[in-house]
Amino acid sequence: MKKPADSSGGRLPRRGFLMAAWGAATAILLGEGGAALLRFLWPASRTGGFGGLVRAGRVDEFAVSSVSHVRAGRFYLSRLPEGFLALWHRCTHLGCTVPWAPAEGQFHCPCHSSLFDVRGEVTGGPAPRPMDLFPITIVDGEIWADTSQAIQRDEYDESQVARV
User: Fold this and answer.
1) pLDDT tens, residue by residue, 138-160
2) What is the CATH number of the domain that holds 95?
3) Whole-angstrom distance, CA of residue 34 vs CA of residue 160
């Protein structure tokens, strides 16, 4: 019996091409899935965003008796005459975001009208305790807050202030 003549001219037959294309697509899909899994399982760097160390700024950028919102860290930096407090912008009543009202000179929770002073102490409303704090370290004139560990407190104490 005679073999049929190959009319492909040395090209890959259609069936071979489709099998190679499906194989390549499967390999790419598995590679991307594996890379995504490794990225998910790899510990994230915790510097510069909420849940880690957040740079608030330089000491000389904040006037005494001022309150500044550090959005990346979700806290307010309160500059007191004795030093700094990093107050988590969350209400201790039900967890609402508490804005600073400069005209009133206090934090005013929009949900249930809890009021807090510049030290985060409750001055009115249903909040059961002062605003939570984040620990502050001052290195070479730069203020860093560790947002990975909120500190609950029952009252203000001068030992909570990061001194300059």
Assistant:
1) 999 999 999 988 999 999 888 88
2) 2.102.10.10
3) 46
